[in-house]
Hints:
Elements: E1 9-16, H1 22-32, H2 53-58, E2 65-71, E3 74-80, H3 88-95, E4 100-106, H4 113-125, E5 129-134, H5 143-152, E6 157-159, E7 161-166, E8 169-175, E9 180-183, E10 186-188, H6 195-210, H7 214-223, H8 228-240, E11 245-249, H9 258-267, E12 278-279, E13 285-286, E14 295-304, E15 308-317, E16 325-328, E17 333-336, E18 340-344, E19 347-351, E20 359-363, E21 373-376, E22 393-399, H10 405-418, E23 423-426, E24 433-437, H11 440-454, E25 458-464, E26 468-471, E27 475-484, E28 491-501, E29 508-512, H12 524-534, E30 548-556, H13 564-581, E31 584-598, H14 602-611, E32 615-622, E33 625-633, H15 640-648, E34 653-663, H16 666-682
Parallel strand pairs: 1-3, 1-4, 4-5, 5-11, 6-11, 29-30
Antiparallel strand pairs: 2-3, 7-8, 8-9, 9-10, 12-13, 14-15, 14-21, 15-20, 16-17, 16-21, 18-19, 18-20, 22-24, 22-25, 23-24, 26-31, 27-28, 28-30, 31-33, 31-34, 32-33
Helix pairs in contact: 1-9, 6-8, 10-11, 12-13
The protein binds guanosine-5'-diphosphate and magnesium ion.
Amino acid sequence: MKDVKVNDTHCFALIGHAGDGKTSLGEALLHRAGATASLGSVAGGTAHLSTIPEEKERQSTLTSSIFGFDHSGKHLTLVDTPGDSNFQADGRIALGALDGAILLVSAASGPKVGTQRMWHFCQSQEIPLLAFINAMDKERSDFAATVDALKDMGANPVIVALPIDDADGFKGIVDLLHMSAMTAAGETEIPGELAAAAADARAQLVEAVAECDDALLEKYLEEGELTDADVAQGLVLATRARRLMPVYCGAATSELGVDTLMQAATELLPSAADREPWKTVDGEPVAADPDAPLAAVVLKTVIDRYAGTLSVFRVVSGTARPDSSVLNLTRDQKERFGKLHVLRGAEHLEVDSAGPGDIVAAAKLKNTHTGDVIGAEKGAPKLREIPIPQGVISYAISAKSKGDEDKVYASLGRLVEEDPTLHLGREASTGEFLLTGMGELHVRITVQKLQRLFGVDVELKRPKVPYRETITRRAENVEGKLKKQTGGKGMFGVCYLTVEPKPRGEGIEFVDEIKGGAIPRSLIPAVEKGIYAACEAGPLAGYPIVDVRVHCIDGKHHAVDSNEMAFKLAGSFGLKAAVQKAKPILLEPVMDVEVSIPGPFVGDIMGDLSSRRGRVQSSEAKGSTQVIQAQVPMSEMLEYASQLTSMTGGQGEFHMEFSHYDESPSHVTEKVIAEAQAGRAEG
Ligand SMILES: Nc1nc2c(ncn2[C@@H]2O[C@H](COP(=O)(O)OP(=O)(O)O)[C@@H](O)[C@H]2O)c(=O)[nH]1
Ligand SMILES: [Mg+2]
């Protein structure tokens, strides 16, 4: 890899909804680039990007898969991501370490929940995108409608490849940048009957590119055309600045349109050298310089049967070398690399160095986890860590055979290490182990892996609902006081807090408004700590408090008796008192639910969703299947999988994922409070 320059090093992801063809497209890209000897197939169980048995069995991607390869003098890393909402978080984490992505959409069904969710995520993270409209060979494919649907989603698509799709089916594409046609036979003339449509689409492309750049626009208005070089260069800038999302199309399983997409991925998406610079925790840019001290982020952890635990990292700056010492800057832990490997699906290829933009794996690091940042022992900038999404559904689990508990706990610990969106905890009141994941399937697959890798069987019990608590009005100037000045060491701290509701999902915010040293500067963080600690258990039923802005407006201190402990407790008492005065309520998680069923079941299923307090948002026919979208409180959906099976004789399917928190109705609140009180009485 050392011969490839940083500006010829690219890493990008394939993202989109489950089942639309990402893995198949990845296989086609790898095969056309000569990185694999044969075209892998998901349906045939030969995909190089499927790395674990559960993926082959379900014919669906469950964990992101990384493949590094060389192509046309460039070093590329392709990351195939899961589309299913249970596993999408894995793709989001990987995107935190990449430079761009290809958003795949099926021409037969258009953008779906998974497409939209990944698109929004890329928007929020400012990740440059190309779109690939796949499955153009399917009978119901509709290129124009799919482009329109991308527009409706809020994207700014511009067509760069037009399908050659006539009565005999899909044959290839017209590349509007080079005004040439590509079919299975190779490059050819643009078919006569498409000439007018191609000229029209080309004019739209030129116009869209011109509008993104003042100098180009001026030239375009004066001369009425732009040169090929102008358009190509303009499109590069517009893509990287995320002003335009260039749209390509093809059919992954027959490798049509794939070469043009590969060229676009390496020309339009930024290389490691010309992406937006990485930032340190202090917001300083970090240049992709192979000669600087090493700085890297860990995007994945893999438990490998032979190699042990692998930490997969992307080099941001500097050069990683085998047998060298590094520092985990997240945990302030010394680590040592042994050999370094490029991942090629399930295979590993040893390398002797890795520079900016390269993604490699190191085995058996001591205490390094997904999301961490690592670097040279001296002089490494501390990069921002990759945020890890938190799971939403918790199941109480127990070992099937008594005496296996320790083994279950230890083995689950290994799986949690590999998948940071899983969480293993213990419920204080009952002592039960709780396994938390992104959805029911996520937890069930984890249980399957547990059995396969470690031979332990566990039982899943009814999941717990992660309720939250918040406030509904402002409470001003509430005192939090700790005063203990009789006998022993004195303790004195007073703070005055004003709390107010924040919009849903914004969490807790602390605002320091202390003036004139009413609380000494050095002790204000203690107040903040106390407030955060008190937010862990709300006054109604002990669930975490969320979405509150806390202003610390005044306080009192004592020259001798004030200390950290005193102010931490004062902050904590103040918060509890303020929340009580601000009319606290219980929030319940509401899920986005998509149910697919044969037409005749629609009435029953809609009625059932309403009885679960669900709000049906749409019901659409897709062929003989009816797809219902609804929002339903999580507490009503805990055993939906088996209930749907019995209602439809196994002919229904559903997806569900967290949408938002909503105030729970009073009968639910009362029940949850009563349960919490019963739990406390027992515990
Ligand atoms: N006809 C057709 N089938 C496709 C195409 N791409 C993928 N498929 C099929 O769709 C199914 C799901 O594809 P997969 O690549 O696993 O989708 P992913 O979940 O997005 O990774 C597989 O059975 C593929 O063979 C395509 O372009 N045309
Ligand atoms: Mg896949």
